[in-house]
Amino acid sequence: MQHQNILFTNNVSDAISSILASKEFNRLFVITDSNTRHHVLPLLAHNPYIADAVNVNFEPGDIHKNLNSLASVWTQIGEAGGTRHSLVINLGGGVVTDLGGFAASTFKRGIPFINIPTTLLSAVDAAIGGKTGINFRGLKNEIGVFNEASDVIISTAFLGTLPLEEVKSGFAEMLKHGLLKGSDSCEALLNYRFDSGDHDHLLTLLKESVEIKADVVRQDPHEHGIRRALNLGHTAAHAFESFAMQQNAPIAHGYAVAWGLVIDAVLSHFVCSFDSKWIYRIADFVLKNYGAFRFTCDDYDALIRLMRHDKKSRQGEINCTLLGAPGDIRIDCEIAPEVMKEAFDLYRDLMHI
Ligand code: GLY
To answer: Is the pTM of this model over 0.90?
Structure first.
């Protein structure tokens, strides 16, 4: 896989111009969803490349990350004269970078694309590392390819337009990266205050976080081993998300990751001697900023059933990424259901539920 160029700047228009000046293409397509078309595209409209580009749009939200939207994007590119020598910019959150990246990767067997993530969650996760695709037959990310954007422009300039909940969602993935990196990164993140509104400081933290992910992806682009480190917090997170969905009370992915990190901190303590001081630091931060995901002991079996059906599970076992300490990563830890139940008990104590 070719090396991905990741640029950190709060002057996105200049970054677009400098990247595009060195590329040859016959037509530029900017893929948006209706949110970024209305709220973000106009902020870049003065850029001469963007002013000349064809806007390709689809409906926002994960429910539209599907075959119909994909077909519509292919059609819009084809009808506007897209060829193999065209170039795509994906301007949006994870749904846009996933679907737009897949559309570009498959149109005429693949045209190059650039990601400009507009949410913290997509900047820190979806836009980096080449996972593209769509949901299919009710299964998330069922169809897709690994193919990296040639360039990613990362900025906090658009975050001001986002609800705080969105920023917190992305921050949970940053906390995950901090835990994978080491104590200093964790400290810096756990000391962050959302009410500071300090976007320059956030950009510094974001840069470090993206570099942590990019480094893991470089070592294992196709997720045969160490990339599974990025699943930290995600076994519980996916179970919480599915459980909440079944109760018709869906939760944001990043919030589920925050709660999942508390579960994995507890499991790491039980299984890998992870220092309990970190459990309390993480749980305090999560409770203060994300509140608690509430469930009772009557829900344990249902949650465990969901974990056994997680993508990471090979034969119905519960598979988690854990830590011996911040930065000491243990992938593919198999957790017995009784141990998971003990972790649920401690989680509920820590979350005061
Ligand atoms: N979101 C985890 C990964 O990109 O591997």
So the answer is: yes
- In order of 118, 126, 244, the CA distances from 216 in angstroms are 22, 14, 30
Contact 266, 217 (CB under 8 A): no
Ligand 1 atom 2: residue of nearest CA: 230
Other C-beta atoms within 10 Å of 223: how many?
Answer: 16
Q: Are 26 and 160 in contact (CB under 8 A)?
A: no
The answer to whether 181 and 189 are in contact (CB under 8 A) is no
Cα 315 to Cα 308, 319, 348, distances in angstroms: 8, 10, 28
- Tens-place pLDDT, residues 130-163: 999 999 988 888 999 999 999 999 998 888 778 9
Q: What is the pLDDT of residues 160-208, one digit of tens each?
A: 778 999 999 999 999 999 999 999 999 999 999 998 878 788 889 999 9
CB-CB contact of 303 with 158 (8 Å): no
Alpha helices in 54-198 (DSSP H): 67-79, 94-106, 120-121, 164-181, 183-190
Q: How far is the CA of 129 from the centre of ligand 1 (A)?
A: 7
190, 217 contact by CB (below 8 A): no
Distance 131 CA to ligand 1 centre (A): 7
